[in-house]
Amino acid sequence: MVAFDKEQEVREILDKVRPALLADAGNIELVKVENDEVFLKLYGTCQTCPVADMTMKDLVIYTIKESLPWVKL
């Protein structure tokens, strides 16, 4: 699969979880996909939120891995 296609797949998944982050004045961005590893960045209140790790693991990573098994996180 071409890198652009993989990035697009990840962006589509992020669009599904983004509303939950936006509800708390946060956001997420895909930085890059390299060797099937996904690099993400949190923005807004997500950067300083005490439960950001839990949000990343329980919402973002879980959703990505469920939809895109090729991803290494």
From TrEMBL:
Signal peptide: none annotated. It comes from the Bacteria. GO terms for biological process: iron-sulfur cluster assembly. Residues 10-72 form the NIF system FeS cluster assembly NifU C-terminal domain. InterPro entries: FSCA_dom_sf (IPR034904), NIF_FeS_clus_asmbl_NifU_C (IPR001075). GO terms for molecular function: iron ion binding; iron-sulfur cluster binding. This is Conserved domain protein. It comes from Sulfurihydrogenibium yellowstonense SS-5. The lineage of its organism: Bacteria, Pseudomonadati, Aquificota, Aquificia, Aquificales.
